[in-house]
């Protein structure tokens, strides 16, 4: 099978790739039947040697994913992430027209890996996401109670890294991400799945910026959203 990862950056310490949607980063207790993971494909790119994920992307989210080529580098860069020294940028298509920019400062309750434990008491943590609206459109399709439907392309900048933070925050401000089965709007998700022949979460990690853990030099890695994402963006006439 062709390796689904696209290499974006490599040196003696790091391997950065683009992960497609619908690929797990590593094994998960809630997807025990899966046999393919970004981790194994990254190891293949690394000549068979072990690599260590520095962060995670949810299975339906595509985009930039960083692996370290040693445990020490993974630890150093992971600590930088925890300290807020790593900047990430995402693009998302959402329902409605958000303000031009804003800050979502809304604490989130931990989501356990095992959904059967979701009713147990979970820790509530601070969570902050900044956003900027990049484009808006209105299509002449009645999906809910209005004769037309509005959508926006937004850039999202998480200041914290809580589980499903971006999806939950956009739902919190009533602009859910298209294709989000858990926090979105089913009618809109179905419309785009039918129109484009396949449903997907319209969330992509496009940029990551950090100080190199060895040299200290600024690293900025960018990846355009994959074709299945860009296809849906054809509803925006000005993009």
Describe the structure.
It is a single chain. By secondary structure, the protein is α+β, with helices and mostly antiparallel strands. It has a single domain (6-235), classed as Pseudouridine synthase (2-Layer Sandwich). Helix content is 19%, strand content 31%. The chain has helices at residues 38-45, 71-82, 165-172, 186-196, 227-232, and strands at residues 6-10, 14-19, 52-53, 62-68, 87-95, 101-105, 108-109, 124-125, 128-139, 149-158, 203-211, 218-222. It comes from Marinobacter nitratireducens. This is tRNA pseudouridine synthase C.
List keywords for this structure.
239 residues, alpha+beta, Pseudouridine synthase, ten-stranded mixed β-sheet, two-stranded antiparallel ribbon, 31% strand, tRNA processing, isomerase, RNA binding
CATH superfamily: Pseudouridine synthase
Oligomer: single chain
Rg, Cα atoms, Å:
18 Å
* Share in β-strands: 25-35%
The ordered H/E elements are EEHEEHEEEEEEHHEEH
Low-confidence stretches: none
Percent helix: 10-25%
What is the count of structural domains? 1
Overall geometry:
globular
Average pLDDT score: 91
Count up the helices: 5
Structural class: alpha+beta
Would you count the extended β strands for me?
A: 12
Biggest sheet statistics: 10 strands, mixed
What is the CATH-assigned architecture?
2-Layer Sandwich
CATH T-level topology? Pseudouridine synthase
End-to-end CA span: 34 Å
Q: Under the CATH scheme, which class?
A: Alpha Beta
Function: Responsible for synthesis of pseudouridine from uracil-65 in transfer RNAs.
EC number: 5.4.99.26
Protein name: tRNA pseudouridine synthase C
GO biological process, one term: tRNA processing
